[in-house]
Write a structure and sequence with these properties.
By secondary structure, the chain is α+β, with helices and mostly antiparallel strands. It folds into two domains: about 60 residues; about 80 residues, 3-Layer(aba) Sandwich (Glutaredoxin). The protein has seven helices and five strands, in the order H-H-H-H-E-H-H-E-E-E-E-H. Strand 4 and strand 5 form a beta hairpin. The longest helix has 14 residues. The relative contact order is 0.11.
Length: about 160
């Protein structure tokens, strides 16, 4: 970890305060900075907050919002809730993985462009099946539509507010 990284982490820690209650907001800021939680940053955090590393890793592994592995620039969440499952979200998930060249259930493309995850529910059951890419939610998805949408996110072609 560079001195610059240490200064940046110290700045984040100072903005929230050096307490156990600040742990989660601090980790959110660190993840925002690196797009995941690097082990070196968590070890540094442990020393600065005077918390056992085991406590920090317990929190990190409990919440799905945190990642110990680098994630892609675009985060794809495929809803697997009951309504989406009934409307074949599993097939949609398989099509996305096939298109992106991912062989595992969840993962990140080699070019760090996309990370695909299954989620239990996105809370928009009337739009099933649903896919969320970053902050954009797409409902009533078909396998053909998802291919068109993925193309918008490749190489920064997508802009916020674009019609969905």
């Amino acid at each position: 970890m560079t001195e610059r990284d240490k200064r940046a982490l110290d700045s984040i820690i100072e903005s929230y305060g050096k307490s156990e209650e600040s742990l989660i907001p601090i980790m959110h800021e660190i993840q925002k900075k690196y797009n995941y939680l690097p082990e070196e940053a968590l070890l540094f955090l442990s020393r600065r907050l005077d918390l056992p590393v085991s406590k920090i890793f317990t929190v990190v592994t409990f919440y799905k919002a945190f990642s110990l592995n680098p994630v892609g620039r675009n985060k794809i969440s495929v809803c697997m809730g009951t309504a989406c499952h009934v409307k074949t979200s599993e097939n949609l998930h398989s099509r996305i993985n096939s298109e992106l060249g991912l062989s595992t259930e969840e993962g990140t493309t080699e070019d760090m462009e996309f990370t695909v995850n299954k989620v239990r529910c996105l809370g928009c059951c009337s739009l099933a099946p649903v896919v969320r890419i970053n902050e954009d939610t797409y409902g009533n998805m078909t396998q053909e539509q998802i291919l068109e949408i993925l193309e918008k996110y490749r190489d920064n072609k997508h802009t916020m507010g674009q019609d969905k």
